Amino acid sequence: MRIDFRSDTVTKPTAGMLDAMMSAKVGDDVFGEDPTVNELEKKLADMFNMEAALFCPSGTMSNQIAIKCFTNPMDEVICDQTAHVYRYEGGGIAYNSLASVRLLNGERGILTPEMIEPEINDDNIHYPNSSLVVLENTVNKGGGKCYSLSQIEPIHHLCAVKGLKLHLDGARLFNALVATGDEAKDYGKYFHGISICLSKGLGAPVGSVFLSSNEIIKKATKIRKVLGGGMRQAGFLAAAGIYALDHHVNRLADDHAHAKTLALALSEANFVSSVMPVETNIVLFDVTPNYKVEQVIKALEAKGIFCNSTSTKTIRFVTHLDITATMVDEAIEIIKKMNI
Ligand SMILES: *Cc1c(COP(=O)(O)O)cnc(C)c1O
Questions:
Q1: I need a surface site. Which of 29, 63, 91, 176 has the fewest CB within 10 A?
Q2: CB of 243 within 8 A of CB of 235?
Q3: From atom 5 of ligand 1, which residue's Cα is the shortest distance away?
Q4: CA nearest to 3, candidates 336, 333, 324
Q5: CA 275 to centroid of chain Cα atoms
Q6: What residues are in contact with ligand 1 under a 6 Å CB criterion?
Q7: Relative to the CA of 200, which ligand 1 atom is closest?
Q8: Are residues 57 and 79 in the same domain?
Q9: Is 318:5 a contact under the CB 8 Å cutoff?
Q10: How far is the CA of 208 from the centre of ligand 1 (A)?
Q11: Range of the domain at 297
């Protein structure tokens, strides 16, 4: 059995999702004429109480478009030092938006108003203009840790008082909603922009959606075109997103339960020194100093378990739609018997 914990992006469309894709009504989305893309955009905007939405090919593109919309050249973006927008988007903030970045040391990527406030620059000719705060929920590098809305509210308040925009990289926002019990409809009022990935835990093959105001989405549509992200009969892909929103949200709780069971088994393994507490579908664990991560990854791979490292001592397991309860049981048996 091949058990692939490398990422929640490795899922393949289910039969039901493929049916929905095959029967999608499509049109030219650059002309705004794809009914299925329009339906997906409206569905998500309504769900989160935002005015409008834009379907993008990737989460990177939707985040980069957001940053471009919310900054001017020479501005500064404030985010955690582990943020995807900073670490894993190829230096896009500098390249696309000509902005600098102020990195904070959050608690597993979670920021507080007390951390942010002293890092907001005064209006002074020497300083870059602090214009945008980016939060990530769940935090990928923080082992899937979540913000609750009660933690976001005071950050929103600070940004409002200081005149900064607030964007949410919500690549795994539905995981956070399922884990915290917060409601999607309450998110819109706290953020100027939200990006959501359909191709992570939700199990669609492609796509991300950027949510914001009508005015910002108009600007975002132009930027998406310039970046080469204007897609034509994209309704086939949007149909997968709609299907995922209808069928794959509640089941994220299974992924979270699987991650917790795996974490428990890993915490007892001789090659593991510590496991980060699990909140959603990501398990991060440190390898005991007498082993190398490559060695552990290879040994697991030889038994059919695939995973990645996130640092020289940390390994990541991600649970998702294509990880069944049987696979979790099998993985636990393998981990128990492992003798590296
Ligand atoms: C995956 C991910 C993204 C977007 O990635 P793409 O591969 O470009 O879709 C953005 N933010 C976070 C936290 C992610 O995990």
A1: 91
A2: no
A3: 59
A4: 324
A5: 21
A6: 58-60, 63, 84, 136, 140, 169, 171, 197, 200, 208
A7: 1
A8: yes
A9: yes
A10: 9
A11: 251-337
Binned at pLDDT 50, 70 and 90, residue 340 comes out as: confident
Looking from the CA of residue 169, the nearest atom of ligand 1 is 11
> What's 16-36 look like in SS3?
HHHHHHHCCCCCCHHHCCCHH
Report yes or no on 178 lying in a domain: yes
CA of 168 to the centre of ligand 1 (A): 12
- Flag whether 5 is in a domain: no
Q: Are residues 242 and 294 in the same domain?
A: no
Any domain includes 9:
no
Between the CA of 199 and the centroid of ligand 1 the distance, in Å, is 9
CATH number assigned to the domain comprising residue 226: 3.40.640.10
Chosen domain end from 222, 247, 272: 247
- If you measure from the C-alpha of residue 228 to the centroid of ligand 1, how many angstroms do you get, rounded to a whole number? 18
* d(CA 61, ligand 1 centre) in Å: 9
- Token pair, residue 9, equals 């992006």
58-82 residue pLDDT tens: 999 999 999 999 999 999 999 999 9
Q: Among 213, 247, 281, identify where a domain stops.
A: 247
Same domain, 103 and 212: yes
Are 176 and 261 in a shared domain? no
Q: What is the Å distance from ligand 1's center to 141 Cα?
A: 11
| Pocket residue to mutate for ligand 1, from 137, 169, 173, 174, most atoms within 8 A of Cβ | 169
Asked whether residue 28 is assigned to any structural domain, the reply reads yes
Q: Name the 3-class secondary structure at 142.
A: coil
Ligand 1 centroid–CA 186 distance in Å is: 23
Average pLDDT, the chain: 97
Residues 143 and 210 in one domain: yes
Kind and range of the H or E element at 283? strand 282-287
pLDDT tens, position by position, 86-104: 999 999 999 999 999 999 9
**pLDDT by residue (tens digit) across 211-236?**
999 999 999 999 999 999 999 999 99
Nearest CA to ligand 1 atom 6: 59
Number of domains in the chain: 2
pTM above 0.70, yes or no: yes
